Amino acid sequence: MSARYVHAHPGTLNLDVDLLRTFVGGWREQFEATGELIRPVVLVAITEYLAGGHDVVFPQLLVDNDEISKFESAATRGGGEFIELALVGDLALSLQRFHDRDGRDNWTESALRLVAENGGDELLREYQRALDQTLKVRPRCHTIDAFARNVDDTYAAVVASIVNR
After folding, report:
1. Helix extents (H) in the chain
2. Which among 21, 24, 70 has a CA at the least distance from the CA of 47?
3. Most CB contacts within 10 A, which of 45, 52, 120, 127?
4. How many angstroms separate the CA atoms of 79 and 48, rounded?
């Protein structure tokens, strides 16, 4: 979704932590730790890119309010507007889509392994519960039911929620 958005909006930066972590040596062996290493770099990049007058997309599932606040502060420091979107949907379909990932990118295999090693579907259910709680304390977050729509309609809803903020 984020790649499609930046393709349609020239100059917008797609700051995908999962992709960026693959630029750090040893990321396959230290997948989770590498994500922690790259996040401070992402915070600086958000601030600086927004300060240059451009937009940033940060496609990441964050469920910790303190962590989200760091990214909101980075956007504010850069003079940008912080817009939160959550693509939500049926848990069973979410689990199915997660397991149906085909691993075409560098990091999907590592993410699948990390989830499997840390509880599998139960870990994903915990994330869902955490997301539900996060959405309760972040009322400005736009939620989009990604499973009630086809991909094109979901994308249109994403764009509309950005444009109509």
Report:
1. 2-8, 17-20, 31-51, 65-77, 91-99, 108-117, 121-137, 151-163
2. 70
3. 45
4. 9
Confidence class for position 157, pLDDT limits 50, 70, 90: very high
Residue 157 CB: number of other CB atoms within 10 A? 19
Q: Which residue has the tokens 């040893």?
A: 26
pTM: predicted TM-score of the whole model, two decimal places: 0.86
- Give the domains, in start order, of the chain with CATH numbers: 2-163 (3.40.50.300)
Two structure tokens written together for 115: 């989830």
Q: What is the DSSP letter of 67?
A: H
pLDDT at residue 139 tops 70: yes
What is residue 13's three-state secondary structure? strand
Q: What's the rounded Cα separation, in Å, for the pair 109 and 63? A: 22
**Cα separation of 136 and 52, whole Å?**
33
Q: Choose among 60, 81, 85: nearest CA to 72.
A: 81
User: What pLDDT, on the 0 to 100 scale, is given for residue 104?
Assistant: 63
Tell me the pLDDT of the chain averaged across its residues.
91
The residue-averaged pLDDT of 11-28 equals: 93
- Cα–Cα distance, 139 to 134 (Å, whole number): 9
